[in-house]
Amino acid sequence: MAAEPGPDGNADAGTIVGQLDNGLYFTNREPIQGGTMKRIATVSEADIAALREAAEADLAARAEAEFRAKIDPELKLVPGSLQVEDPVFEFSHQVGQDAEKVSVHASQTVRGKLYNPAQLDAQARDEVGRRLAAQAGNGVILLGPTVTVSDPTPLNEEQTAFRVHAEAVVRTVITTEQQQALIEQVTGKSIEEAEQTLEAMPGVAQYHIEQGPDWLPRRMPQIPSRIRVEVTSGEQLPTGS
Hints:
Blueprint: E1 10-11, E2 17-19, E3 25-27, E4 32-33, H1 45-69, E5 76-77, E6 83-84, E7 88-91, E8 104-107, E9 110-111, E10 114-115, H2 117-136, E11 140-142, E12 148-149, E13 153-154, E14 162-163, E15 166-167, E16 170-172, H3 176-186, H4 191-199, E17 210-211, E18 227-232, E19 235-240
Parallel strand pairs: 17-19
Antiparallel strand pairs: 1-4, 2-3, 5-10, 6-9, 7-8, 11-16, 12-15, 13-14, 18-19
């Protein structure tokens, strides 16, 4: 007799079926009594889908942000180098398995190439100086404070090579020979003619001519030794007396 009447204590004919280890199949051909109904939870596809959706949302909110937060403050991310791989999920149970609870471990790999702006700037400045010197030849000074260096940009999809753009201002050095040649050109000329000579001289951005005393005619001295040329920060200053 069943210990407890009702569906928990009874089984209709054909309810119990299975296969023994030796391969024989069994079933209850007659109703039986005395059994107990046991409810067992199993993992469903909806359970897995809900966990996956929650994990994907969590990774989307945290993965890239945590990667950027771990970058050394002295380094910068190369533009366009960030790579976010597809997430990987590991579930504690699979669909159809018996389990009261199911959990998921989700991970996502984030990669990026970093560079040191200070080191890059120093290398770029050295390279700019070398190339400008090679292009312009002797007599050119690179003005260090004017050098500007852009962020690196990849040259290929593999991002194994990068390019930076650098700009700088150079100053032409007015040599002693050029100064003497200028003096000879303006000797005995009017102030207006001397100004025209200076304007046509390569490397001269600004100039100023001083003459004294005031009662002298507006002409450069007739004797070259009375003319002095001063060069300051790239500016040429012919003076006459």
